[in-house]
Write a structure and sequence with these properties.
The protein has about 240 residues and is mostly beta strands. The protein folds into two domains: about 10-45 and about 55-85 and about 165-240; about 90-160. About 5% of the residues lie in helices and about 50% in strands. The chain contains one helix and 16 strands. The protein has one helix at about 75-80, and strands at about 10-15, 25, 30-45, 55-70, 85-90, 90-100, 105, 110-120, 135, 140, 150-160, 165, 175-185, 190-200, 215-225, 240. Strands 1, 2, 3, 4, 13, 14, 15 and 16 form an eight-stranded antiparallel sheet that branches. The chain has a three-stranded antiparallel sheet with strand order 6-11-8, with no helix packed on it. It is elongated and about 95 Å long.
Length: about 240
């Protein structure tokens, strides 16, 4: 018989169930596991010493899915954090109001590539770059020696760069169609495709923001029964298609 050894790689695509949208690729995924658990009912043999099992019934308890995603895109973070993602547009920002405190960072409304000017609220005093303020990763920093007084109202003009904003934990879990376009490296890259009809993903357990290794989003969930899939021998959970 043919050798069906398997070492898998491939691409994963997701789409919200019922959405009029394309199956979207989610990037580099190092793990995709399906785990089937069973509920076992046993009838013990009570007719003689020593016991044993007279009969048993096995039923499918659940089909678990787990993935490790290495592309921390805004869309993947939103999925894993029960959130939403929106685009931040680039452009010139004028007179953005803030309250300054020397020795502290001011978060600008958008990420900035350059500061054009920082003035007092009336626009009558212009502060000096490098002395009264600095552009740092994460925002506008006011040095402790700045001429800007504590709790002073200031206006900031700057150039914003395009970015993505993720609002975490603002929605409930969603259901997705999952398509795995797999390749079996042990069989010269022959196709090994999987389609899961309804996948409900759980929230991300942890998000590593500082570390020495490449970050991964470890997401777990369940495959749910899709009652729209009907017919004799038709799976309501998932299908596997292997190239010969």
């Amino acid at each position: 018989m043919p050798d069906y050894s398997y070492i898998g790689s491939g691409k994963i695509y997701l789409r919200e169930v019922g959405a009029a949208a394309p199956l979207a690729e989610i990037g580099n995924v190092s793990k995709l596991d399906f785990g089937v658990s069973e509920d076992v009912k046993e009838l013990k043999d009570h007719t003689q010493p020593g016991g044993g099992t007279m009969n048993e019934v096995r039923r499918i308890g659940a089909v678990e899915v787990s993935m490790t995603l290495h592309d921390l895109s805004a869309e993947n973070l939103a999925r894993a954090l029960y959130g939403s993602a929106e685009a931040i547009t680039a452009g010139a920002i004028a007179d953005e109001a803030h309250v300054a405190y020397p020795g502290g960072l001011i978060r600008l409304a958008k990420p900035a590539s350059a500061i054009a000017a920082v003035t007092n609220a009336a626009g009558t005093v212009t502060y000096d770059a490098g002395t009264d303020y600095e552009l740092r990763a994460g925002g506008l920093f006011i040095p402790a020696t700045s001429d800007i007084a504590a709790a002073a109202a200031i206006l900031v003009d700057y150039t914003a760069v395009s970015a993505d904003l993720v609002q975490a934990l603002v929605s409930s879990g969603k259901e997705y169609e999952l398509a795995f376009a797999g390749l079996n490296e042990a069989r010269s890259g022959k196709a090994a495709d999987v389609d899961a009809h309804r996948v409900r993903l759980g929230a991300l357990a942890s998000l590593s923001l500082i570390g020495d290794d490449f970050a991964g989003l470890e997401v777990k969930g369940k495959l749910l029964k899709d009652t729209t899939k009907t017919g004799v021998g038709v799976s309501q959970y998932f299908t596997v298609r292997l190239a010969r």
